[in-house]
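Please, structure for the following, as tokens.
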Amino acid sequence: IRAPREGLRTGVVIQAGLGDLLADGSRAPMDVKVGDIVVYPRVPANVVRINGEELDIIHEEQHALAVLEAA
């Protein structure tokens, strides 16, 4: 997610996972998708730097608190 640095954060989803693995082996559909603008809390341990750009990693979809704008 690309995002600014202060408070509750907003950012653009640049990659999304496959969805939760269900008991029957299928995957639950993701509620967020690449290009969505989402709100999420910043967790410093989940910040990485790639090619000089600081990115926040959200490990679980429920940490995206809201979708402000769908892609």
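The mean pLDDT is 87. The longest strand covers residues 9-12.
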